[in-house]
Amino acid sequence: MRLTHTEGTELFHVFLNWCIEFLAMDGINFFEAGDAPLTVPEGVPFFIHINQNVSSGRKVVKQNDDDIPICECKYDAKYPDSACGERCLNVLTSTECVPGYCPCREYCKNQRFQKCQYAQTKLFRTEGRGWGLLAGKYIKAGEFIIEYCGEIISSKEAKQRSQTYEAQGLRDAYIISLNANYFIDATKKGSMARFINHSCQPNCETRKWTVFGETRVGIFSKQDIAVGTELAYDYNFEWYGGANVRCLCGAPNCSIFLGAKSHGFQVHNHVWEDGDDRYTVDTFPLYDSAEDEPFSKHFKSASLNNTIFTASGDEDNLMKVDGFAETNYSIEFTNIIAEPFGSVAVEALPINAVKSEVKEETDLFPQKTQQNIPQATLGYNSGSGSTPKNRSQHVPKSRSKQASRKQVNAKNVAKLFASKQAQEEIIRCEELRTEATKKLNDLYDEIRPSIEEHAKDSQDNVPTDVAEKWIEATCTQWKAELDLHFSIIKNFVCPRPHTNEHTASTEGDHVVKQLTN
Ligand SMILES: C[S@@+](CC[C@H](N)C(=O)[O-])C[C@H]1O[C@@H](n2cnc3c(N)ncnc32)[C@H](O)[C@@H]1O
């Protein structure tokens, strides 16, 4: 029997996987070539350690020479920070310098992801949260600690995998969102970052950086961290249905459940009443995530609740390059989609909150602010079959439909004023508002393809000119909205002087009873 090249490759992979599983059964960890050997403590579930993302079947963006960002730093031996320190143009835009192009050559300090310049960390066993990572040395605020590496997968694949993990009984979640279309799955292959637990009062945060044109997720310290302190960041978990996982971070402001702040969780677990806008997600839709993100479609849920992190200029030339030598791991698999880090002990706790139908569909759409950079969100629970039923998960298709905020009906309000001048002013303001809103909606339709195109390339940013147009139109609309409200309040608080035209009112422009009562 002759095998084709593809069949041969597939067969080889099957064999390789089998070898890996076999070694895993014996408690031996298998590391990919080039990775530092790791000492694995007993009890750490098997995984393959990698310090570079693995992109299977995903188009890797090739950078043209013209696209390579070149900074203007000049290395001065007297000032080490001159070589791509915090003032470097690339650092300021969270972009790593490209070797061979950076004017500081080998002195460049802005290649931390590429060179795996990680802080020293140590794996340890936590109480109730599986394994965790702690600082092996003092870590300064703003330091790059480690990259969250894993397999880059599409949102469709993420959904399938999370279902599979769930079916396999894995409890910890290791799938983190990279951008609108892609996720990083560190369940089977990942860096040590996969062991960092969630905290509602974290000492670390995720930030996205661009390296060779690709987005990568790093864990950075938010504050000085003493040696031996557990590292943790806020997962910004999105909840897709299934069990509610008790958060054991112990922070005074703990939100009790992982993902409790996420929209899906709130919709599912809280009482929603007419006019209750406690959980309304503010909309600033440069990006309509429900329609545009395959993720939302696949998960049939109320979209990701991403957080935006801005990159800061880091000067961690002093960082220790190896964070692994002293680490151990263990994995307790959870079937869940974690965005950055996993969740351990999945405890199915009944939530007593009364569940009621969501009345206002329009409150449900998720927001995504675009021109910003990155964030990483951890999602858990595939939601396959466990997605809340009978709940409105609809996300509007157009921006105008999204604008669910209750708007003042200016015509009705104007009628309440006795003064014709006041009425005219309010109606004029309303016309301006309508015009501004229309312009904003038209612009949204116009720029949507550009946003989609950008998302396909795995970029979180939209072109600057698009962002500028959007900001301008948004500001105009906000101003028109403000002018209208201001005009109403002004005419109410400061009545116009009497004129002959007003016979009905003896109180100037005061609104009629309905309002004053
Ligand atoms: C990315 S893993 C983190 C490492 C994990 N502890 C381990 O042993 O592999 C995320 C999982 O850790 C657990 N976890 C993380 N933070 C937690 C917290 N604050 N409370 C409860 N479980 C947590 C959850 O099971 C979560 O799905």
From TrEMBL:
Gene3D superfamilies: SET domain. InterPro entries: AWS_dom, Post-SET_dom, SET2_Histone-Lys_MeTrsfase, SET_dom, SET_dom_sf. Residues 362-409 are annotated as: Disordered. Its main location: nucleus. Residues 391-404 have a biased composition (Basic residues). GO terms for cellular component: chromosome; nucleus. Residues 367-390 have a biased composition (Polar residues). Keywords: Chromosome, Methyltransferase, Nucleus, S-adenosyl-L-methionine, Transferase. Residues 119-236 form the SET domain. Residues 243-259 form the Post-SET domain. It is found in: Chromosome; Nucleus. SMART domains: AWS, SET. GO terms for biological process: methylation. GO terms for molecular function: histone methyltransferase activity. It holds the Pfam family AWS. Residues 66-117 form the AWS domain. PANTHER family: SET DOMAIN PROTEINS. This is Histone-lysine N-methyltransferase ASHH1. It comes from Heracleum sosnowskyi.
